[in-house]
Design goal:
Blueprint (H helix, E strand, L loop, with lengths): L1 H14 L3 H4 L3 H6 L9 H30 L15 E5 L6 E2 L8 E7 L6 H11 L5 E4 L1 H6 L1 H9 L3 E4 L12 H19 L5 E2 L8 H9 L3 E3 L3 E2 L8 H15 L2 E6 L3 H16 L3 E7 L10
Parallel strand pairs: 1-10, 2-7, 3-4, 3-9, 3-10, 4-5, 6-7, 8-9
Helix pairs in contact: 4-10, 4-11, 5-11, 10-11
The structure holds zinc ion (ZN).
The site of zinc ion (ZN) has 5 residues, from loops.
């Protein structure tokens, strides 16, 4: 009975929110993290999808003019799609933090963290496929357990699957033992799901410690970081996100871009961003580990 009441209360509270407020709960509504929403989940999801579709229509009408205002031509590159990307190989024996500043001018590597998401990741895969583009994903072990088939699709499409911890914890707050368990469990579920191992790791919020960096280094893993933070988890409006992302890219002109495939505004914005960057002559990069033979130095 109490669960019944609390579900009604929860549904009522969410139903009373404006669209701008409700979008903050997109992941809760669509990923079953708020368990007791069976009575209103489909209504809330329809409301959010309609809101996002309106935002996408607005961006579709404005994105070319915005790109003209915000981006200068970076190079003469001409391509029918944003991809194909250029492979950039890093040597796991010289593992270090990858900030993205090593990429050449007009070179951008997209990273998408925090997924896989039940519905949004597939939409992103379609956009990436349309652009003939491969990216670096950093997935969360618990989400892989919830959606293994989606990770398999990401891998089958050719994207590189890195590790973003088992449960998206701030590893600075855990004991060294528990923190390394978060790292290893993340790698293990990825390997178990796709049958491949990529020695790439992304800390939650980039929040690393010297000890954990030394640990990754010891086992020849790379720590990914970013030099272009789109703040896509925070900027909920697709047009605003698009504008902020273009401004940052224009200022920096090369590097690793941080985005999140559990954010509906990110998925809405991505196709427009890819097209604007293609027209401005940017080249996408995929960061790959150099294969060093069959033995990997892993614990
Ligand atoms: Zn994250």
């Amino acid at each position: 009975m109490s669960a019944q009441v609390s579900e009604n209360d929860r549904c009522q509270a969410l139903n009373s929110l404006s669209d701008e407020e409700l979008i903050n709960f997109y992941d809760d509504v669509t990923s079953n993290t708020l368990q007791k929403l069976s009575k209103c989940r489909s209504v809330l999801k329809a409301k959010l999808d309609e809101y996002i579709d309106l935002k996408i229509d607005k961006l579709r009408r404005s994105y070319l003019q915005i790109a003209e205002r915000k981006l200068t031509q970076c190079s003469d590159r001409k391509s029918a799609t944003f991809g194909p990307e250029v492979d950039y190989f890093v040597d796991p024996e010289k593992s270090e933090i990858l900030y993205g500043d090593f990429l050449p001018k007009c070179g951008l590597a997209f990273t998408f963290d925090d997924g896989p998401h039940k519905t949004l990741t597939r939409k992103l895969l379609t956009s990436l496929d349309n652009e003939n583009l491969l990216v670096n994903f950093f997935v969360v072990g618990d989400r892989v357990r919830a959606s293994p088939d989606i990770l398999k699709e990401q891998y089958a499409q050719g994207h590189l699957i890195g590790n973003h911890t088992q449960s998206h914890e701030d590893l600075r707050k855990l004991s060294f033992k528990n923190a390394t368990a978060e790292i290893e469990n993340g790698f293990n579920i990825i390997t178990k799901t796709i049958g491949d191992y990529i020695p790439f790791f992304f800390f939650f919020y980039g929040a690393h410690t010297k000890d954990l960096q030394a640990y990754l280094n010891h086992f020849n893993r790379f720590e990914f970081y970013w030099n272009i933070d789109t703040l896509d988890w925070k900027i909920k409006d697709p047009e605003e996100l698009y504008i902020r992302a273009l401004e940052k890219i224009e200022r920096t002109q090369h590097g690793i871009i941080l985005m999140h495939d559990i954010q509906p505004q990110t998925i809405a914005t991505a196709p427009f961003l890819f097209e604007a960057l293609r027209m401005a002559g940017y080249t996408p990069y995929l960061i790959r580990p150099l294969k060093k033979g069959p033995t990997q130095n892993v614990p």
